[in-house]
Specification:
Structural class: mainly alpha
Distance between the termini: 55 Å
Mean pLDDT: 80
Strand content: under 5%
Length: 157
């Protein structure tokens, strides 16, 4: 009598809908983790550049370390998003899409010698800080990810 009242196909569809909702929510939370870490990176970077301009090198070093810690959190959260997306079934171009959507800046110099070198560079420009040039120099070196071969020569081409 119970089989007449409850349609098994309807129950399966309900469970599938709930799973899709849970998966979407998990992906959304993972994206939020990345955005929070990137926001922290940007805040620490702006503090870092202010202290470089004021020639407060110890404070600049502190903010550089904070920036690099936030960067590590962002990289880990981005990796977790890649794993979640892979588990859900986003396999084609997963890495490229995630890396293009959530770019993460390079690490800041975390030694006093490197920061003093940046400070000397700024002083030689008569105090005119070109922080964009510094950030470009830090992000200049870009290595391909692990799926580069597949994108250029592999099965998805």
């Amino acid at each position: 009598m119970r089989a007449e009242v409850v349609d098994p196909g309807l129950q399966i569809k309900t469970i599938e809908d709930e799973l899709c909702g849970v998966i979407g929510k998990a992906l959304g939370k993972q994206c939020d983790k990345i955005f929070l870490a990137i926001r922290d990176m940007n805040n620490e970077y702006s503090q870092y550049t202010e202290h470089i301009e004021r020639n407060e090198l110890n404070k600049a070093l502190e903010y550089a370390n904070r920036h690099n810690e936030a960067r590590k959190r962002a990289i880990k959260a981005r990796w977790e998003l890649l794993v979640h997306r892979q588990a859900v079934g986003f396999t084609v171009d997963n890495h490229r899409i995630v890396h293009d959507t959530y770019p993460i800046a390079a690490a800041l110099p975390d030694t006093m010698d490197a920061i003093q070198g940046i400070s000397c560079l700024n002083n030689s420009n008569n105090g005119a800080t070109d922080t964009e040039t510094i950030q470009k120099d830090l992000t200049k070196e870009k290595f391909p990810d692990q799926l580069d071969w597949w994108r250029t020569r592999g099965r998805w081409k």
